[in-house]
Design brief:
The chain has a single domain, classed as Response regulator (Rossmann fold, 3-Layer(aba) Sandwich), CATH 3.40.50.2300. The protein is 40% helix and 19% strand. The protein has five helices and five strands. Strands 2-1-3-4-5 form a five-stranded parallel β-sheet, sandwiched between helices. β1, α1 and β2 form a beta-alpha-beta unit. α3 packs parallel to α4. It starts with 7 loop residues before the first strand and ends with a helix.
Length: 126
């Protein structure tokens, strides 16, 4: 088995239900799923795993999804890792833009939407 990052994904969310549902769905599709319920020291968390995709919740402790995503996007090493921003907030599109995320997913979402948005960011050449 290759140890590349092609099927590693990180989910940052402090909602255990979301984490378990997403983990279940994504593992079924062959992803190696890593979850965190805070975004502290985000660069070192991402560096340890080197994911292909990141799912980022807006209300993640402590600094929040916008700051966490901006930190990643300001990092030369991780700015090209696609970030899918997700939130139940009505302004999700605006929040995702402010964060510099690659795309967004409104909560609640269904499995098809989750798959579609991940496929969408994976089309971009690495």
């Amino acid at each position: 088995m290759e140890h590349n990052n092609s099927k590693r994904i990180i989910i940052f969310d402090d909602d255990e239900d979301i984490l378990s549902i997403c983990t279940y769905i994504l593992e079924e599709q062959g992803w190696e799923v890593h979850t965190f319920n805070d975004c502290n020291n985000i660069i070192s968390k991402v560096a340890d795993i080197n994911p292909r995709v990141i799912l980022m919740d807006n209300w993640i402790p402590d600094v929040g999804g916008i700051m966490a995503t901006q930190t990643l996007k300001a990092s030369s090493d991780y700015k090209d890792v696609p970030v899918i921003y997700f939130s139940a907030n009505n302004d999700i599109q605006l929040l995702a833009q402010n964060a510099g995320a690659d795309c967004f997913l409104a909560k609640p979402f269904d499995i098809d939407e989750l798959e579609r948005v991940i496929s969408k960011v994976l089309v971009v050449p690495n």
